[in-house]
Structures are given as C-alpha cells and as structure tokens.
Model the fold of this input.
Amino acid sequence: MTTIKTLKKECQYKFKEKGSLFISQGFPAATTDAAEEILERVRKKYYDATHNCYAFKIADGIFRYSDDGEPSGTAGIRIFNAINHFDLTNIIVIVTRYFGGVKLGVGPLGKAYYNGAYELLKNSEIKELNLFLRTSLKYNYKHSSSVHHFLSKYEAVIENNIFTSEPEIIFSIPAHNYEHLKFDLESHFPPQNDGKRPVKLTESIEKIYK
Done:
C-alpha cells in the first residue's frame, strides 16, 4: 500500500442498548506495540467494565480482535468489520460495555458492537497518509552539495545529520521516489579506485506512513 486512511485523532461515541452502556473509542496506532499500550490504558480506565472488546489493524498486515468474554463472534470481529468497512488502517477501536442487567441475545449483541464501531468511525475525522521509506546514506564531505541536491530533487525529508569522519544523513523519502534516487546516486557517484562509492545508500530501510 502506498497510501492508507486512518484516524486524524482520538474519538468516542456512547450509546445505550437495553440498559447496557457502550463506550466506543478509536485511536490512531501505527504499531502493534502502540495498539497494545492503548488497550492497556483503556482497560485500566474502565477497570470495572463488564467487557473491553477491541480490534486493531496495522499497515504491516498485522490485525487482531477479541470478544473479551462476550459470546464468540459477537464483538471483536464485528468491530473489525466496521474498521474494514471504512477501509481504515493503523487504528485500534475498543468498545467497552457496562452490562445493564438484560441479555441482548447473540444477534442483537453483534449488531450493537458493529453499530457502536460503525457510528464511531462514521463521525470521526479521517486523514490519508503516504508511504515513506526511512533510510540513510553515507558520503564524502566534498560531495555534500550534490547529495543535498539529489535529496531535495526527490522530496526527501532530512531527519538527522551525523557528522563523523564519514558523515551520514538519515532521511525519509516518498516510496515511489526511492528507486529514482538510488539510480541517480549510483550513476553520479561510481565506485572509486578502492572499489567504494563516495556516496552510498545504506541497506537499512523502514516503512513509515505520514
């Protein structure tokens, strides 16, 4: 995926169904660790709730959902389906339930969890993020001007400069521009007598969305 849609900010939606209070919350979450930290925080906040059901979906393909004690298939997968309905990624949705004394039945219960997530996301602010690759290059000082020229040409965003005997620039670049940058650098800076290039991209590449 070169673009994804996710939440612009945290959001909440509350409703009651036959005495039970449902609190739906959505959060941006770019990693599994971030999603799990959010889940733990919500569980602590609503420690006295009957259930904290959830679903999350991350851009690297990882997803997870849980019924948290509700009948199998009535909660987690319903929340996950609502996330997919809006084609959202890098997100966790948690629906907390305080049981009101009246059992809803499997069908209505599943509908309540789906609607809780659906209404939450329908009224939330959505943003689109583009895929960037975070990497770095090492270069000889005398080529500093040319290096910055090529980085600017391909819309790279410099995140850090490391000044040592062999300086290094850590940057992120739109994914569709990476191969063009690589081609230009390799063409412009061929191997020297010692077999090394004076400007070389490192092998470390991290996918990020922003």
In short: The CA atoms of residues 118 and 159 lie 37 Å apart.
